[in-house]
Design a protein that fits this description.
mainly alpha; 2 domains
Length: 423
């Protein structure tokens, strides 16, 4: 029955986030509080980007509700940490709103993120210990703990912000990843006779974030009426990283036993946080390498993120989002299986899931190949009449034409079939 109290907090966050998202959408539409469409944007109509404000209000409401529940007394026993998290969240939201309105330079944004992360670390939410082989936990020196905490917070904030390019993408990924993390935190901290272990900061933040994203998602689903903007994406990243950091030092490896005995327990503690962030961290890493290799700032905007590439491959907006959901779910829940089954079963299930995701992701390329075969096998008169000559790679190379996208190829295949039926 203890889960009811987390559901209550998440429900409060969802309701408040939804109500204020609706209000902000109406006000933004009425007073035209939305920026012009940028070249790298996927959407085609001006859309308000102030959803992060509604999400922050939902976070504050959830904290207020939980503070009145005796079950969360242990969470609020150190008010300095709570005020630091809320203060950092407010700083990030204000920074994000300012960036959405005035398009701040990357130095200003990075400085603000470091200050917000430093506030949380200053109040004791730090990576103070790390699991290592041969020992349960190794205590980090104070300056390393502080620097590592700030680095992780800033890294995750920017990673989540980088994938915020499709309707419902960040909110959905956050719900999937944080639900897996919530289960993980519950399993490793649960003590039947000790309620205080079950109600902890890591699980509390995860529940709040799930609720906030669930409340925001209806207005952000494709076609989105409201974007979370940098304010919302940075807020999601900040809270996800904070919940993962809050659980360090809370794990008692001596109590972890069960089917995962063939895998050292410390590896699970390292694997889960990376697994739930696999999509944003991968996109972030590729973007940084791509921009540094081009001699540009790692914060320079471009249109080569993973979600852009899925669209260019020929996936629809909705399919691209669902593919991201699938990759996140497989990585997160695949790692979670290590807690409930033998490692080889977990590896098998995860491997099958990754293969399926890969097939679905690359499916448009197989459609493009089918178009090439159909064009090459058709008569020259028919291909000319259907205007699909450019989809023969040999002819395209001969005339120096650029390679069409899979979406264009699929349209060409339909035209070719129509001309074949007509003749």
């Amino acid at each position: 029955m203890r889960i009811i109290f987390y559901l209550l907090v998440a429900g409060a966050a969802a309701v408040v986030s939804f109500v204020f998202s609706f209000v902000i959408w109406k006000l933004s539409s009425r007073y035209r509080l939305y920026p012009k469409i940028r070249e790298r944007d996927v959407h085609t109509r001006p859309t308000p980007r102030l959803g992060g404000i509604a999400m922050f209000i939902g976070v504050v409401a959830a904290f207020m509700v939980a503070s009145r529940l005796p079950q969360f007394e242990i969470v609020f026993s150190e008010p300095g940490r709570i005020f630091a998290i809320l203060g950092a969240a407010l700083m990030i939201v204000l920074l994000g709103v300012a960036d959405d309105i005035w398009d701040l330079d990357w130095v200003t944004k990075l400085a603000g993120q470091i200050l917000a992360a430093g506030l949380i670390a200053w109040q004791g939410v730090q990576i103070a210990t790390v699991p290592i082989p041969g020992e349960q936990l190794a205590v980090l020196p104070a300056f390393i703990s502080l620097g590592l905490t700030i680095l992780v917070l800033v890294l995750v904030m920017n990673a989540v912000n980088f994938i915020d390019g499709l309707d419902g993408l960040v909110a959905g990924v956050a719900i999937i990843a944080n639900s897996a993390f919530f289960i993980y935190a519950y399993v490793i901290s649960y003590r039947p006779a000790e309620q205080s272990d079950y109600f902890n900061l890591a699980q509390f933040i995860s529940a709040v974030l799930i609720g906030v994203c669930a409340g925001f998602l209806p207005l952000n689903w494709h076609p989105a009426r409201l974007f979370m903007g940098d304010a919302g994406a940075l807020l999601v990243g900040l809270l996800m990283a904070t919940s993962a950091i809050a659980i360090t030092g809370q794990i008692d490896f001596a109590t972890i036993d069960g089917p995962q005995r063939l895998l050292p327990a410390f590896s699970i503690a390292i694997l889960i946080p990376f697994a739930i962030l696999i999509v944003p961290l991968l996109d972030f890493g590729l973007a940084v390498l791509r921009r540094l290799r081009a001699g540009k700032s790692p914060f320079t905007a471009d249109r080569m993120h993973l979600h852009h590439r899925l669209l260019d491959m020929g996936h629809s907006h909705l399919h691209a989002v669902l593919i991201f959901y699938a990759w996140t779910a497989v990585a997160s829940y695949g790692s979670l299986l290590l807690l409930v089954t033998d490692w080889w079963w977990a590896a098998l299930a995860t491997g099958v899931g990754l293969i399926v995701c890969t097939i679905v992701t690359l499916a448009p390329l197989s459609r493009r190949k089918a178009v090439e075969v159909a064009v090459q096998s058709a008569s020259p008169e028919l291909t000319a009449e259907a205007q699909v000559e450019q989809f023969d790679p040999l002819d395209a190379a001969a005339v120096g034409e650029s390679e069409p996208s899979p979406a264009e190829a699929e349209d060409a295949l339909e035209r070719l079939h129509e001309k074949e039926e007509a003749t």
